[in-house]
Amino acid sequence: MSTLSQVPEAIPLPRAPPFESPQVDTATDMTRLAPEYGTRLLPTLIDAIATTTPNRVYASIPRDDADMSRGFKDITYADFALAIDALSWWLDETLGKADGTFPTFAYFGPRDLGYAAVVVAAAKVGRKVLLASHLASPDAHLFLLDSLSCTAVIYASEMAALAQSLQAKFPGAKYISTTSLGDFLTEPTLSARSDRYGYSKPYSIALSDPVMVVHTSGTTGLPKPVIWTNDMLCSVDRLHTLPGSVATQMAGQSVYCALPVFHTSGMTASLLTPVFLSTIIILGPAGIRPDKQTVLDVLRNAPVSAASFPPSLLEELIADPVCRKALKRLKKIVYGGAPVSAWANRIIASEFNGTVSSALGSTEGGLWLTGSSPDPADQGYFLIHPFMAPDFQHTDVDLYELVIKRTPQSEAYTNFFRCIDSTPPHLAAHFGFDNKESINEFKTKDLFSPHPSKPGLWKYRCRKDDLVLLSGEVKMYAGAIEEAISAHPAIGAVLVGGQYRSRPFLLVEPATPITTNEQKVEFVENIWPAVEAENGKHHASARLQKELVVILGSEKEVTRTPKGTVDRKATLSAFESEIDELYKSWSKL
Length: 589
What we know:
This protein is α/β, with parallel strands linked by helices. Among the domains are: 37-309, 3-Layer(aba) Sandwich (Rossmann fold), CATH 3.40.50.12780; 470-587, GMP Synthetase, Chain A, domain 3, CATH 3.30.300. Strands 2-1-10-9-11-12-13 form a 7-stranded mixed sheet. The protein has a 6-stranded mixed sheet with strand order 6-5-3-4-7-8, with helices on both faces. A 6-stranded antiparallel sheet has the order 16-17-21-20-19-18, covered by helices on one side. Helix 3 packs across helix 4. The protein is globular. Residues 1-24 are annotated as: Disordered.
C-alpha cells in the first residue's frame, strides 16, 4: 500500500478495443444514421403511440396489492396518455399555469406508476418535478427543496408524516395532500378535465427544457440534485443508433422492476426503456419495499420474462433455493447500483447460463455504455464502449478511476456533459462545475481494476470516496478491501475504517446473527483466514488485526443506502462510540 507522497507503479493496461464498431466522427453523423432516434420527446411519442396503437401494453400492475393471486391488470398506452393528460390539467388547476421559468415541485408517493406519469405531465405543463428518495435523510430533503427553490410539495396520504416534517422546516412551499398520482391511470376523472393536453414543442426548441430532478445518494455529504432535460431523457432513445448495442434486444420483454421508481435506475426501467425501447414494465405492490416473498408472488402471478433488481435483493434471492429456481425461468436478469458479492458471482457464473448481467449507470451520466464477456468465468467484468470515451486513470496499485472525455460520441450517447450544462449557476460552483465551458472530462470517482489477462475487461472495485487516510500518510481504499473480505459466506456486511488513526478497524455484520461473546470469538477465527489473505496485499500499517474488530450482534445493524450497500457515513456515525471504545481498549494492550 502506498503513501500519499509516493505513486505506486501501475499495472500495464490491456490495449485491445472492447467493441468492434464503425468509425463515427460527429454527433451529426450519428443523427444521420436514424434521423428520429434521439429526438423523439416523451410527451409527443407517448401521444403518438396512444393514437396509432392504443391497445399496445405499456405496463402491468397488480389488480389487488394485498392478493397478487388475483392477477395483473394491463395498462395500455391509451390509458397512460389519458392519465398524463388528466394529471397535466390537474397540475395546472392545483399549481396554476407555469410562467415559462420551469418552477420546481416535489412529489412523494407510493412505488407505483404515478412517478412515470408525473414526469411526463411536468414536461407538458412546463414545470420540473423533484423525485426525492423516500430513504434520504431529513437534512437531505431540506437541502434539495431549498437549493431548487421548490414552490410546492405534492404528497400522497402514505407520505403525510414526511410532508408534515418538511413543512415545519420549509414552510415557504405550498403543501398539497392528494391520492397517489398513480391512481390517475385507473381514475382519470380525478381531474376536472381528461381531454388531450396539447404539447407541440419540437425537439429543437424543447431539448434543453428541464423536466425532472433526481439526486445522488449523498453518502459522503449532501446529495447532488441533477436536473434532467428533455435531451437527457432522449439518451436512451439514442441506443437505437449505437454500434454494437444490445439494448434494443429487450423489445417485447415483460420486465419486473424491483428498483425504486423514484431513483434514476427505476425511472429508466419504468418509463424510458418501455417508451423508447418497447419493453413492458411490471410493478409489484405499491405500498411495500420488495422482498423475497414479494418477488416470488410477482413471478408466480404476472407474465414476467425479465427482471431488474437492486444487488442486495438479488443476493437474497440467489441464496434461497426456491427463489433461485424461480429466477432461472427468466430470459434476462439485470442488477445495478453496486456489484454483487463474490459468492453470488460464482453462483451466477455456474448456474444462470449468461442470463444475469449488471448495468452500470449514474445519476449524472444516465445509463452507461457497457457490455459483458460471453465467458461465464468473467462474471463481474465489464466492457466499456469506445463511444463513452473512457480514460482509466491510475490511482493506486491496480485501481483506475474511470474518467469520461468530452467527445462528440460521449456527448451524444451519455449525459455527463449535459448534466454539467443543466446545473444552474448557484449550484455549479458548489459541485465543482464552475467554468462549465472549459470542462472537457468528467471524473466518475468510480475505481476499476483491469482483467489480469483479457484486454478491455474491467471490474468495478469501489468509490474513490472510500479512501481512508491513516496517520503517517498511509492510504487505503476501504471499498476494495471490503469487497474481498465480504466474499466469505459467513459475512453479511463489512466496513473498514480508521480515518487518521494509526491502524484500521474492521466492523462486521454476520450473515447469521450471533449474540454471545463465545460465538463472536469463534466467528472471528472463522473469517480470519480471509482477512489475512487480504492483509498480505497491503502495507503493514494498513493491515487489519483481531484486536480492532467489531462484531455486530442482533441489537444493532449497519445502515444501508437505497441501493442496499453499506452507507459508510451513516454507519460510522451510528457506531462512533463503539469504535472509540475499541481504540481505547487497543491502546491499553
